Amino acid sequence: MENYLLHLECSSCGEIYPHEIPQNVCHSCGKPLFARYALEQLVDTWKPEHLQTRPPSLWRYRELLPICADEHIVSLGETITPLIHAKRLGAQLGLSELWIKDESRLPTGSFKARGLAMAISKAKELDISKLAIPSAGNAATALSVYAACAGIPAHIFMPKDTPVFNQETCRLAGANVTLIDGLITDAGKIVADRKKDAGWFDVSTLKEPYRVEGKKTMGFELAEQFGWKLPDVIIYPTGGGTGIVGMWKGFAELEAIGWIGKKRPRFISVQAAGCAPIVKAWEEGKSNAEPWQDAHTVAGGLRVPQAIGDFLILEAIYKSEGAAVAVTDDAIREAMQLLPTTEGILTCPEGAATVAALKPLIANGIIKPSEQVVLFNTGGYQA
Amino acid sequence: MENYLLHLECSSCGEIYPHEIPQNVCHSCGKPLFARYALEQLVDTWKPEHLQTRPPSLWRYRELLPICADEHIVSLGETITPLIHAKRLGAQLGLSELWIKDESRLPTGSFKARGLAMAISKAKELDISKLAIPSAGNAATALSVYAACAGIPAHIFMPKDTPVFNQETCRLAGANVTLIDGLITDAGKIVADRKKDAGWFDVSTLKEPYRVEGKKTMGFELAEQFGWKLPDVIIYPTGGGTGIVGMWKGFAELEAIGWIGKKRPRFISVQAAGCAPIVKAWEEGKSNAEPWQDAHTVAGGLRVPQAIGDFLILEAIYKSEGAAVAVTDDAIREAMQLLPTTEGILTCPEGAATVAALKPLIANGIIKPSEQVVLFNTGGYQA
Questions:
Q1: What is the distance between the alpha carbons of residues A231 and A224, in angstroms, rounded to a whole number?
Q2: Partners of residue B168 in chain A, C-beta under 8 Å
Q3: What is the pLDDT of residues B51-83, one digit of tens each?
Q4: CB A157 within 8 A of CB A190
Q5: What would the pLDDT profile of A169-192 be if each residue is shown by its tens digit?
Q6: A-contacting residues of B 33-52, CB under 8 Å?
Q7: How far apart are CA A58 and CA A56, in angstroms?
Q8: Number of neighbouring beta carbons within 10 Å of residue B360
Q9: What is the pTM (predicted TM-score) of this model?
Q10: Which of A108, A182, A369, B121 has the fewest CB neighbours in a 10 Å radius?
């Protein structure tokens, strides 16, 4: 099929890089690179009707994905995740249009599969020979299985208190696992320090340009599931932040090719009270977030003291007239019971955080009873 | 939509029962009841093309499902599970057409969601007020969340060594959990003894007529994914056996409405060496299985010493010219690593058993190198 990928562009300074060789961040300013496509060529030639005969997987949005040749695609069946109308929970809270996008239904049980399917396919296309990643858990599991499937060795660095499920699945898939005494940011430093000597390609969130391309498909699916009309509000748990950044980018691309209009959902970022750098920055009206000290929360995926994409997350929140809110671990634990008892959906702590955020958001008038509100359950429950 | 469900029919003696009231097994002979449909009305009026515009979920086969009114459907988004061409594992074993249907991608991470989505929807339709189930784990988790979603109290009985994931998820969904000192058959006896006094409806495999209707959709999906031509061989892990029984029934229905021809896959039942009643019966050419003594295996879902549907499982194996094979726990553990390292698919021990069965089946000439072979990974890995 025809390929519309043009080049990579720095999300901050705009410098252009070729996509034909491996790239990490901008050489000039150190910020994330974004894939850019020949969108104008798709206007009037590629239409939503073309999707109808394609299989129900994220690869149906092929024209806006960065893999040049189909034979490089590494796929474990990235099926479209269900969008569930949460009528019982909505009724309890006084919301008539509460929806949950259940990302636990992707390979390895979390939304991380989207980004890693894309990153590993591209790594295969670019003939990358060794991969390394710092992770809070689910990204490591996803990287491990896609890398195994592509036949590329993977080196995993994660906190020693990472859930057993993630540790075991990485090992089952044959990855090299190192548990460290620290947080994901410390794991990231180890990868950064060792990668040159070891010959590893760094697959860290937003330090690798294609994971975000996988994440944007959450926005594509949501738009398609709502008939190319976006909801009023998206509530999303924020660690590294690629989910919000990806969807924001994806919506811009959909508008550019004429599939959606100007309306954007208000993005509401949810963080844990014990690690809320984005919430703090938003409350202070800043465009960058300061590193969070002494980060702690039951939601390992939200224990990210500093995110390289902070300015991109905050930009999406400000421009969409959204908000950022922190929830306590107790509220997260309570939500982990509320969601299955009302809607039958089992959730990870990160997904539960979006449920926990509903009460304060309603109380503060940030979301209104009749608005169309979408929560992202980013992963499944793990024992 | 129009309703094609006619009545229930005993799978052994043929006695007819109305579907408008709750039913368990045949009052005359104690065997499972099957839902029967007005198939002749669907010939020439319902066609595969009609599926194209329906959402990718098992509910697309609506005409052959037993729920009479749409408003009773309890759904958590039962998406079509991916059928993955296992090229790397196939190459290792000398099989060019090895496929894996990954059932771990259903709600609660296992194929059990299919049967319980159907059973709980029907329970809601029939206004059943309390449910009880004996389970080895995954069925309990699935029942718990669907029952919560339907607002029907659920009583779970399972062995005390049931995986922590299942115990915790049942409790998160608000079910009443009793751990017992025994096997699933012992749990089944407790439900049978107490149900009358407690007013519970027994949702045991094949003692409830609609779980098998959910399971048959595995066969419908497989047929659709292969373009309405069935594969040569289906390798399926067998505990209670509804998977094989359901697919066998489903294929007969598809043939009756003219969507597939006479060809059937050879059904190969895989059991654990420590609990292999179906394998023993098949080896001895019997049409019923004797209860297995001292059942033990790492695959909890295969630790079923006696199945009420034994004669139906064996019938499908004999009529399809299939086979039955037992694999050791060591071979299962080895397969739990082989599948993720080659294909990136994480699996439960039961799904791994089908991978473990490949080597002996090839060595014995039961499957041939060029045949189209489908393994069912019935559930995801749990820590």
A1: 11
A2: 381, 383
A3: 988 999 999 999 999 999 999 999 999 999 999
A4: yes
A5: 999 999 999 999 999 999 999 999
A6: 52
A7: 7
A8: 15
A9: 0.96
A10: A369
